[in-house]
Amino acid sequence: MHTHPINAMIAAANDAINREDFDAAMDFYTDDATLVVVPGRAANGKTEIRKALAALAEHFQHTLYVTQGDTIVIEAGDTALVIAQTNVRANMKSASPSLETRNANYVFRRGADDKWRCMVDNSYGAALLALPPV
Amino acid sequence: MHTHPINAMIAAANDAINREDFDAAMDFYTDDATLVVVPGRAANGKTEIRKALAALAEHFQHTLYVTQGDTIVIEAGDTALVIAQTNVRANMKSASPSLETRNANYVFRRGADDKWRCMVDNSYGAALLALPPV
Lengths: 134, 134
Description:
Chain A is of the alpha+beta class. Chain A has one domain: Nuclear Transport Factor 2, Chain: A. In chain A, 25% of the residues lie in helices and 44% in strands. Chain A contains three helices and six strands. Chain A has a six-stranded mixed β-sheet with strand order 2-1-6-5-4-3, covered by helices on one side. In chain A, strand 4 (79-90) and strand 5 form a beta hairpin. Chain A starts with a helix and ends in a 12-residue tail after the last strand.
């Protein structure tokens, strides 16, 4: 449960998202990955995920900046559950930036090339249990 | 994200654990499953998980009673992230029973027989980020 190659993957994925380099961001997902976009709505597969990330960037007026805090990785065979503090910042080009820290959940799978990729990306974590579907 | 066959699996697994029928409980895990026993310590594979469940039953003086609350299942291919309210009750044969509700995380995999089995069992959920290793 200490430093794990997945940590570097998440940091690089956040960096790609912050730069709005969605082609690079897609490298971090498996082909059949699922991204929770908002409570009650998910994007399935790279085409939908790419579209959802572009829409989120637009929604946050291109000021979204995501960083990773404490992270725990629990491996089982070729699969890992990841629990990560995720800091979601968006200044919205205003004097009142929003900053939210979430306890995200991810599921990663190790591929035949030994690289870990994200299968499930749920930045809301258990907060989904309390949030009404959008 | 509505009713899902995994809900019935979790209910049946809880029932097996409550009856201390550890042979039955093992049916719900994959061969390479990981169970978070306490913060910082995990059991890997069925032999270790069986031992850990027996030790937990002992620790709770055979009064452990686990039930499932609201549950969200997020599928990606043959894999699913599960977020579930888990009520952990143990009366410890005393007048002051303990009751704790946790937001558990599970990862399930659908096998060749189409049955979903648990790969990662983390009843602590994101609370692991705050809990010191035991």
